[in-house]
Amino acid sequence: MKIAVPRLRAQLDPASPTPDDLDDEARLLELALTDVDLTDLEAEHVELSGCRLTRCKLAGSDLDKLILVDSELDRCDLANARWADAALTRVAVASSRLTGFAGPGASFQHVTVRDTVLDFASFRFARFVKVEFSDCRLQSADFVSADLTGAVFRRCDFTGAEFSQVKARGAVFVDCTWDAARGLTALAGATVAAASPIDTLTFTSAVTAATGITLAHPDDLDGA
């Protein structure tokens, strides 16, 4: 699966907008935002295109129907942000904090997310097309009814994550952690690969438990 990278100009104009500067339908085009604080920003139909965000704060932002195109987010804070029905295309996220992030109904196309914390993030009814998460922590993340058919997850921690009612045919999971993950029977059609026998056993145990099957050792059943 080839994922297109963000298309950015070599030189971007620096900008430092404040929440008061951004109203509904605001457009930020080909800008470099560094250490910009947009905490708790609320707006609809905002567009960011061709932008590089470095160490920016968007924690608690509520950006309904956000359009994010050809952009990079590096070491940004999006904790508890809510981007309902957002559309992200050719976006790269790295070393960022998305704890409690919510993207219900969002569309992710040609997106990479690496070395990022997404504990308790929610992607209900989201759609992933040519998306790769690598070395991310997704503990207690919520993927209920998400379309993961175009997603690859490498070395991700899904401890306590919820996958009920997902579409996963064609999705790929490599060397991921599955402790206490739920709804794994919905991953029918996905490929799960693990170099560690322990990780394989953890996934297998979780799936069999979800189907009501109990794994046991023959010695445990002597006299049964």
Q: Main β-sheet, in a few words?
A: 12 strands, parallel
Strand content: 25-35%
Unreliable runs: none
CATH superfamily of the largest domain: E3 ubiquitin-protein ligase SopA
Estimate the mean pLDDT confidence: 92
CATH topology of the largest domain: Pectate Lyase C-like
CATH uppermost class of the largest domain = Mainly Beta
Radius of gyration: 19 Å
User: How many discrete structural domains?
Assistant: 2
Structural class determined from secondary elements = mainly beta
Shape: elongated
Order of helices and strands: EEEEEEEEEEEEEEH
Helix content percent band: under 10%
Please report the distance between the alpha carbons of the first and last residues: 50 Å
SS element count, helices: 1
State the total count of DSSP E strands: 14
- Please identify, by name, the CATH architecture of the largest domain: 3 Solenoid
Brief sketch in words of this structure:
The protein is mainly beta and 224 residues long. 6% of the residues lie in helices and 29% in strands.
Topology, pairings included?
Elements (H helix, E strand, L loop, with lengths): L12 E3 L11 E3 L1 E4 L7 E3 L2 E3 L2 E3 L7 E3 L2 E8 L12 E8 L12 E8 L12 E8 L16 E4 L17 E3 L16 E3 L3 H14 L14
Parallel strand pairs: 1-3, 2-5, 3-6, 4-7, 5-8, 6-8, 8-9, 9-10, 10-11, 11-12, 12-13, 13-14
